[in-house]
Amino acid sequence: xxxxxxxxxxxxxxxxxxxxxxxxxxxxxxxxxxxxxxxxxxxxxxxxxxxxxxxxxxxxxxxxxxxxxxxxxxxxxxxxxxxxxxxxxxxxxxxxxxxxxxxxxxxxxxxxxxxxxxxxxxxxxxxxxxxxxxxxxxxxxxxxxxxxxxxxxxxxxxxxxxxxxxxxxxxxxxxxxxxxxxxxxxxxxxxxxxxxxxxxxxxxxxxxxxxxxxxxxxxxxxxxxxxxxxxxxxxxxxxxxxxxxxxxxxxxxxxxxxxxxxxxxxxxxxxxxxxxxxxxxxxxxxxxxxxxxxxxxxxxxxxxxxxxxxxxxxxxxxxxxxxxxxxxxxxxxxxxxxxxxxxxxxxxxxxxxxxxxxxxxxxxxxxxxxxxxxxxxxxxxxxxxxxxxxxxxxxx
Length: 396
Known about the structure:
The chain is an alpha+beta fold. Among the domains are: about 5-80, no CATH class; about 80-135; about 325-395, no CATH class. The chain is built from 20 helices and 15 strands. Strands 1-3-2 form a three-stranded antiparallel sheet. α18 packs across α20 (about 370-395). The longest helix has 26 residues, at about 370-395.
């Protein structure tokens, strides 16, 4: 009656009653019925019972089957997917250490039984074969670093946070990091707008000069994925590496101050050379600006030394309050030397520069006052109109 549903339910009830998680023997799991099916009902007319029992085992028996089982057919034993680790490793061409790592990371289903001092482990062969095919297309840590356009240290931080899927374990048998390509693709699957405006910096640059060495990149990526920060790309049609995504420094400054305030990450600000890179000036100029108080710094004890550290907010404040010679030269359409003479003649004085004894600096720095900006904007428009008229005259 109700064949084969009732028969399968009977087997499930027997297994639930007799089976022990520490015992993988069929005779103990199903009781006397196991011998009855294969010994007392061994006539050809009862083959459908044995076939259904084997079909049940293939679907529900989460344990290995002995290769020398005298009751089960050779096909049932061969098709059974739950196998010992050594068998799964041999079938897929993986090392035992790699299979164990896949189990420990929860990437494949497995069961464990402690037999005295031995730990017996079985794995699902179908899932192991699928994981093996993904592993064959995986890339090394160096390859992932090139694909993402990030340093190896930053890639390791993404691995530790679980943002990247990997195979193998560097502590087991010295097997290399192998990172799944699918996880690399998924990491850059966020919606990224096309870049607009200027003054943007890449995430690779941010990771090198803005973020703490011990972390910060994971939080940055999560902020982009949740929409707390906006990232951009140069060309909307072309896939961009994660490190090539662009961000606005002003957005980063406010986010970092909020995110790392009271954080366990040690972030005491940027060094003066790194701040110089962000500002696009030489180190000597940055140190002079710190000495003159134009670029605000904080004295921080690092190890046994005391260093001057620059907060991201101080960099944005410097950009907002001061303007340097190259930018002024662009406005005026002159060389930096001619720009100095021109502004000096119309009574605009720099706050620091090579000729100022009390405020010596290798580069001229002006206060970004409203009066100076209005004049530079007017000069830029006048210079552009003059160039347009000259081009028209030359063309005809």
